Amino acid sequence: MSDLFEFVLRLGDDALVAAQRLAEWTSRAPEMEEDVALANIALDQLGAARLLLSYAGELEGAGRDEDALAYLRGDREFRNCLLVELPNGDFAVTMAKLFLLAAYQRIRYDRLVTSTDERLAAIAAKARKESAYHVDHAALWVRRLGDGTEESHRRMQAAVDEVWPYTHELFTTDESAARLAEQGVAAAPSTLRDEWLGAVEPVLATATLTRPADGWAPGGGREGVHTEHLSYLLAEMQVLHRAHPGARW
Amino acid sequence: MVDLRAAVAAVVDPEIRVVTIDDLGILRSVEQDPATGRVTVTITPTYTGCPAMDVIRADIRHALTAAGHPDVEVRTVHSPAWSTDWISDAGRAKLAAAGIAPPPPAGGTGRAVVPLTLAVRCPHCGAPETEQVSRFGSTACKALWRCRSCREPFDHVKAL
Fold first, then answer.
1. Touching check for B145 and chain A: CB below 8 Å?
2. Does residue A248 form part of some domain?
3. Taking the CB of residue B19, how many other CB atoms lie within 10 A of it?
4. Which of A34, A230, A244, B5 could anchor a disulfide with A29, C-beta 3.0 to 4.6 Å?
């Protein structure tokens, strides 16, 4: 496996699994406008995932296209971070996850615009503008719920506390990521955290939320070791394609 | 060559049927190989996940086949990235005439420390007293707004 294939797969799997989770809200969001919003954000994530997984398939050179990578891999072959596969929980948990993820994706894509890899740079230039919109939207809800009623504040704080440990994985640099950074393809994940904190902390502060202390840092997603939640998500996402390979309509 | 370009440029957007793919800046180029006669059309998506792209590709093939050029290749490029600044003046006028507020100049969202909000004029009555109802609308590229003067809701193409 080349380092570049590995990296593009990680980025693409983050977007794909996030899209699938967000789409679970369709017809279940607390209000009609939010239903439309979450579906749109899921669609943006899916759009980025398709570009990235198509590219990953080409890099691998084994004849796998975006569909083969999305629908015909088992959970141990997925390289997404654990954060995106966690269950949606209540609306506050979903917003905490989206806010922390989108803030990371925006910075990740921002940096990739100057990548020495032209294809990645082009995808990132497109995706970063959409990510910026996701950050704005999620930040709005984090502030509204955090600085809202006693109950909404309590639940928003609990949500941020619950998912915060999973953000550490986004900024972990392994050997493969370190080699790509040396080649100027993609900044090392660990170098993105200060900027991410700079984007996240002020929003938490205006939302009257306490920034959780750093401590427990679960990981493993980048190596294919996932929580029990991913295989259920994949079962639902892949069932049609596995039952009817190559189905089109 | 002029005919080919005109045939493709007349393809309407499947989701906003008052404007063409040329008005929206989705169409990047139309080229014909003089040797083989093959026509290569290059397009770019508004949003990465825009579900209209497959229909647009099919409509381009259909338009060129109808014009007598069945050998068509439709290429999709992502660089330079599409922004709402690619929407032509004619496209903006058509959107407004259809009750869809055109986008303000792009670049105002995202990185700004203090987001700059420009007044969006109601496409129905022209009043500047409008408000956003939802940041997302009926398609990926639009938000839902409402006029506080005439009370009509309207779509607004988001700056990107």
1. no
2. no
3. 24
4. A34
